[in-house]
Amino acid sequence: MFERLGGQELKKLLDLGVVSKISCWQIDRCGRDLRDIINFLHYTTERKVPVHFISQGLVTLNENGEENPIAKMMISILGVVAEMERKLILERQKEGIELAKLKGNVFLGRKPNTKEGPLRFLSKPKKQWNY
């Protein structure tokens, strides 16, 4: 999580002691795989900063600053599920690209170093694939 720009900024704030609580929509927003998630949570727990996962209703630390064992168990389980889901998405994406190539459609992806903003990208006409 700390490799990205926002993660680096969060790490600085955690190290400075500025952040007292982190709210996150879902567990999978804390890392790409279970190891990343656990490393992030270990880092915040060491600094006594509770992480609240809004959609799951879990908080990593109790009111007295101790690790919540039920939340730890649920986070581990849901982290594995999120990791498996991500792998499935990538596999399906790869299969879709291969199918498109077999049908003669060229898959190029996004051009490198594009300066196109999100609004312009989203307002472009969509290509219709015939599968």
From TrEMBL:
Signal peptide: none
UniProt cross-references to Pfam families, sorted A to Z: Resolvase
Lineage top rank: taxon: Bacteria
GO molecular function, one term: DNA strand exchange activity
SMART domains: Resolvase
Resolvase/invertase-type recombinase catalytic domain segment(s): 1-104
Entry similarity comment: Belongs to the site-specific recombinase resolvase family.
PANTHER family assigned: DNA-INVERTASE FROM LAMBDOID PROPHAGE, RESOLVASE HOMOLOG YNEB
Protein name: Resolvase, N terminal domain
Phylogenetic placement of the source organism: Bacteria, Pseudomonadati, Bacteroidota, Cytophagia, Cytophagales
